Amino acid sequence: MAGLRTFDAFPKTEEQYKKKSQKGGLSSLLTYLFLIFIAWTEFGNYFGGYLDQQYIVDPDVKENVQINLDMFIKMPCEFLDVRARDLTMDNKLASSELKFEDMSFFIPYDTRINDIKEIVTPELDEILGDAIPAEFREKIDMRMYYDENDINTAEHLPVLDGCHVFGSVSVNRLQGELQIMAKGYGYRSFVKTPMDKINFAHVINELSFGDFYPYIDNPLDGSAKFDKEDPMTAFVYHTYVVPTIYQKLGAEVDTNQYSVGEYRYHKHDNSMSSVNLVPGIFIKYNFESLTILVADKRLSFLQFIIRLVAILSFVVYIASWMFILVDMGLVTLMGPKWSLRYQPDIASQGILQN
Q: Could you give the C-alpha distances from 271 to 26, 193, 277, in angstroms and in order?
């Protein structure tokens, strides 16, 4: 038994006969770089989270909703009548909850005139940054800054031909309409507005539903409407309100967004009488039963690891098969020397190859 010699059935290749392929090394390097890029992207997605949007049935039963209004109207305040009316025929005198200030009517700079801005759903971070609750200020009497009996200032008294209407009105959460009319024209009143005082040219600084967030931009904010040819025009807005909840890192903003359509009726073409309208501003509103939930979510660490391993494994598998298929194609079409594995050995070349 001592004379028996053992031998290795599968001997290892000696190092002097091994030759690494530069082309294969380059493809491996590119694959590794791509894997690092994929891993970096997945880590960014894991820490940054993802945006999940879905429709849900409104979880809260709300009987009332708040309408936030801030408008300039080219009429004296004493002739304005503001009411809220809904499907139940509940007729609420909204004037008692709003504030009225006499002012000189003007259209602020950068206001869209006879136009409505493009309706775009705001980003989550934008909403969370702008969702600063506020309340409307108290009423200010502009006449207190002027002395009508002072001869020096009497000539400089402003013409108070407009009214600043602002505040919040609580209405039933039903389909309804906010009506801004001249006294004596929509409902019975002891006051009859003179014809020459009726002009419903207006500027909407704020129109929103729900909690008052003045920094959140709404479709009608910063818009103005007027008709020089027919001051007694009826302006009608149709708004469709969708409750929207924004959630991120424990913070939650419960607000409403809305789409809007608008048209107007003129007295001189008899279109107003055909629909039994009077001059005024009519804001019709309707509330959707579904709520949009916009939430920033993150995968659990276990889900992230499983996802990352699965993606990287798939990339390696695809890269290996692409390498094999490309190599086979080059060998078939161009010959063995074009193989990605081919590496000429200068030391083994014979005399005829020199």
A: 77, 22, 9
pLDDT tens by residue, 173-196:
999 999 999 998 888 888 888 988
Tokens of 45: 């997605």
- Cα–Cα distance, 108 to 246 (Å, whole number): 31
Give the integer Cα–Cα distance in Å for 101 and 202.
14
CA 80 to each of CA 61, 69, 70, 231: distance values in angstroms, whole numbers, following the listed order: 34, 15, 14, 15
Amino acid in position 279: P
Distances (CA, A) of 182 to 27, 238, 262: 79, 20, 20
The tokens of 103 are what? 């002012």
Sign of the dihedral defined by the CA atoms of residues 299, 300, 303, 304, in that order: positive
* Beta-carbon contacts of residue 238 (< 8 Å; ≥ 6 apart): 260, 261, 262, 284, 286
pTM of the model: 0.71
Residue 254, by phi and psi: left (phi above 0), alpha (psi -120 to 50) or beta? beta
Longest dimension (CA), the chain: 137
Query: Taken in order 170, 174, 178, 183, is the CA torsion positive or negative?
Result: negative
C-alpha span between 172 and 185 (Å, rounded): 25
Q: For 93-133, what is each residue's pLDDT tens digit?
A: 998 899 999 989 999 998 998 887 776 777 777 887 888 88
* CB-count exposure of residue 314 (10 Å: 0-12, 13-18, 19+): exposed
The CB density around residue 140, as the number of other CB atoms within 10 Å, is 13
